[in-house]
Design brief:
8 helices; five-stranded mixed beta sheet; about 400 residues; Fumarate Reductase Cytochrome B subunit; 2 domains; elongated; five-stranded antiparallel beta sheet; single chain; about 45% helix; 10 strands; Sulfite Oxidase, Chain A, domain 2; alpha+beta
Length: about 400
C-alpha cells in the first residue's frame, strides 16, 4: 500500500546545525559583516558623488584605503556566513502557514516576503560585488547605481527581519550552546552531541569566512600579500603599480605642444611640461586605493596643486575641477573638494618611484591626492579649473 507523500516539518530536520542557537549567532555575525559593508560602501558612494552636506577628510592619507578595504573584505566574509545562515534556517521554510488565522497569516506572508527580498538583494550585492572586483560586467545596468540602490533594499529588509525575529534571536543568544533545544534530558547523551555539533558548525562557518578574508586581504594589506593566493591585484603592473585602464584603452594621444591649462573666474594661464618640471617638486608616499578594494602605496613626485594655483595667480580655498586628455571615459574629469585642493600633499605628479610617469600611469602628469578613490585620481591631466 502506497503512502501519500508527507510535507516535511521543521521537526524533520534535527541536525544541530539547524538549531535556533546556531542561526542566531550566525545572524549576529552576518549582521556585523553587512553593517560594515553598508557603512563603508555608503562612504565610498558619497566620496564619489558627494551631497552638499558631505565632507571627507584628507588625513590620514590611508583613510579611504582602510574603509574600502573593509568594505570589500566584509563583503567577502559575508558570503560563507550567508550560506551558513541559510543552511541553518532553511527547515523554517516548511512551517505551515496559519490559514485559519487571518492576522497571523498576514504576518507570516509579510515575513516571508521580507526574507525573500533580503536573500535576493543580499545575493545580488555579493555576487555583483565579486564581479566588480574582477572588473567583469556581464549585465546591462550601471554597476555603481544598481549596487547603491539595492544596498538600501538589503538594509531595509534586514531591519524588518531583525524587528520580527528579535525576541527569538535575543532568547537564543542568551542561551548557552550546551542547552538542549527541545528540552530532552541531558542523560540521554543528545545534549552533548548537539552541543558539540552546534559548536563545530559555528567554528566551521567562522573558519571558512576567516580563510576567505585571509586569502584575499593581500589586495589592500601589504604584509599579507604573500599569504593571499586569491588576491586579485598585487604590486605587479607598470612601474610596480596595478592599473585598471591603460592609455591605449583610453585612446590617449599627448600632443607635442601639450600645455597644462589653469583656469579660474577672470583669469587663465598655461604651463609647458618643461616649465612644470622646473618648478619646486615635492615627493610624498601616497596610496592608489581602488574602489575594487586593492591598494598600493608609491612615492609620487610633483608640484602641489595649491602651489600651482598660487603661482598662476588663481584663488585657493575653492574646489578644483581636474580634466583629462581622455574624452569619453566615465572618470575623464573629477572635482577636488576645497580641502583636498588646498592640501600640500595633493600633487600634480610627474614621477612615480623615481621614474617619469609611464603612459599607463598618466604621462605627462596625473593627480594624486590623499584619502581619495583611485577613480578620482585623474590621469593624463590637461586642465585645472578653479570653481566658484
Amino acid at each position: 500500500m502506497k503512502h501519500k507523500p508527507r510535507v516535511p516539518t521543521p521537526e524533520d530536520f534535527p541536525a544541530p546545525s539547524h538549531s535556533p542557537l546556531v542561526a542566531a549567532r550566525l545572524g549576529l555575525w552576518l549582521g556585523v559583516a553587512f553593517g560594515l559593508c553598508f557603512v563603508t560602501g555608503l562612504l565610498s558612494h558619497y566620496i564619489q558623488h558627494p551631497p552638499g552636506w558631505f565632507t571627507w577628510p584628507t588625513r590620514p592619507v590611508n583613510l579611504y584605503r582602510v574603509t574600502q578595504g573593509v568594505h570589500v573584505l566584509s563583503g567577502i566574509a559575508a558570503i560563507p556566513l550567508l550560506l551558513g545562515k541559510l543552511w541553518s534556517v532553511y527547515p523554517r521554510l516548511f512551517v505551515r502557514p496559519p490559514l485559519r488565522q487571518p492576522i497571523r497569516l498576514s504576518a507570516h506572508i509579510l515575513e516571508r516576503i521580507s526574507v525573500l527580498v533580503l536573500v535576493c538583494a543580499a545575493f545580488f550585492e555579493l555576487v555583483t560585488g565579486l564581479f566588480n572586483v574582477a572588473q567583469s560586467y556581464p549585465w546591462g545596468f550601471f554597476f555603481p547605481t544598481a549596487h547603491y540602490a539595492v544596498a538600501w533594499l538589503v538594509v531595509g529588509a534586514l531591519l524588518l527581519h531583525i524587528a520580527v525575529k528579535l525576541p527569538v534571536a535575543s532568547a537564543a543568544l542568551r542561551t548557552p550552546l550546551r542547552r538542549e533545544d527541545v528540552g530532552e534530558a541531558a542523560s540521554t547523551g543528545r545534549d552533548d552531541r548537539d552541543s558539540s555539533g552546534r559548536r563545530a558548525f559555528l567554528r566551521t562557518s567562522a573558519g571558512v569566512a576567516g580563510v576567505a578574508v585571509l586569502a584575499t586581504a593581500g589586495v589592500t594589506v601589504p604584509w599579507l600579500r604573500r599569504v593571499s593566493p586569491l588576491a586579485w591585484r598585487s604590486a605587479s603592473g607598470p612601474q610596480g603599480i596595478p592599473i585598471n585602464r591603460t592609455a591605449a584603452a583610453a585612446r590617449i594621444v599627448v600632443p607635442p605642444d601639450w600645455r597644462l591649462e589653469i583656469v579660474w573666474p577672470g583669469g587663465r594661464g598655461t604651463l609647458s611640461l618643461a616649465e612644470l618640471t622646473a618648478l619646486p617638486q615635492r615627493t610624498a608616499e601616497l596610496p592608489i586605493a581602488c574602489v575594487e578594494g586593492w591598494s598600493v602605496s608609491a612615492n609620487w613626485t610633483g608640484v602641489p596643486v595649491v602651489q600651482l594655483l598660487r603661482r598662476a595667480g588663481a584663488p585657493t580655498g575653492r574646489p578644483v575641477r581636474v580634466s583629462s586628455l581622455e574624452t569619453d571615459g566615465l572618470y575623464a574629469a573629477s572635482t577636488l573638494p576645497a580641502a583636498h585642493a588646498g592640501d600640500p600633499l595633493t600633487l600634480l605628479a610627474l614621477r612615480v618611484n623615481g621614474e617619469e610617469l609611464s603612459a599607463d600611469h598618466g604621462y605627462p602628469c596625473r593627480l594624486i591626492a590623499p584619502s581619495r578613490p583611485g577613480v578620482l585620481q585623474t590621469k593624463w591631466v590637461a586642465r585645472l579649473e578653479v570653481l566658484r
